[in-house]
Recover the amino acids of this structure.
């Protein structure tokens, strides 16, 4: 699994690597732009929302939301990713921190209209996912939404099929979302696939 140094080293080439995978309709980034666009359109249905992005990377999505008047908060593991993202959105409140250890204290003190995560939470183990999702849901304003865009599958069978197709390219260190496995813990969970290996998971706060 990539550590902080690994993410820092990958930062400059990250967007290019994503683009090459998406163009070839290959795991893991097939459907990447569709996933981001779906989240972008959902967030902009609300006027000037407050948005928390977990694992914002180089700011590909959040910078676009920032330009549309969203109030942006964020946490990312990589200091170099943060350094690349901050100039794109100077007033955004961005913090470095390992989300596998929870939210940065400054982010725990607020509530948000939307909490986003794109292609980041697969670094949580399956055992870590549900507690962290619960933590995020507790930070939503009433009626707010948690939107997770990631490598994700409707069923375990779909995941295994993708694993077989990917062969040696499959990343065994990453733990991908399976909608059917999460549904018993989160009955209100919705899943919209956008490729054979990606989709958006949605939960609405109370």
């Amino acid at each position: 699994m990539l550590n902080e140094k690994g993410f820092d080293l990958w930062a400059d080439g990250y967007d290019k690597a994503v683009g090459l995978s998406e163009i070839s309709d290959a795991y893991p980034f097939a459907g990447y732009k569709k996933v981001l666009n779906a989240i972008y359109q959902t967030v902009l249905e609300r006027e000037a929302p407050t948005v928390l992005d977990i694992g914002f990377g180089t700011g590909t999505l959040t910078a676009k939301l920032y330009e549309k008047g969203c109030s942006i908060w964020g946490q990312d593991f990589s200091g170099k990713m943060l350094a690349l993202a901050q100039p794109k959105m100077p007033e955004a409140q961005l913090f470095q921190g390992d989300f596998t250890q929870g939210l940065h204290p400054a982010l725990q003190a607020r509530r948000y209209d939307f909490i986003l995560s794109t292609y980041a939470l697969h670094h949580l183990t399956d055992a870590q996912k549900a507690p962290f999702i619960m933590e995020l849901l507790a930070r939503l304003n009433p009626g707010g939404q948690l939107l997770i865009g990631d490598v994700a599958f409707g069923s375990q069978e779909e995941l295994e099929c993708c694993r077989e197709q990917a062969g040696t390219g499959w990343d065994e260190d990453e733990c991908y979302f399976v909608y059917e496995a999460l549904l018993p813990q989160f009955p209100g969970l919705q899943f919209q696939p956008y490729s054979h290996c990606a989709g958006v998971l949605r939960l609405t706060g109370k």
Summary: The first helix runs from residue 4 to 10.
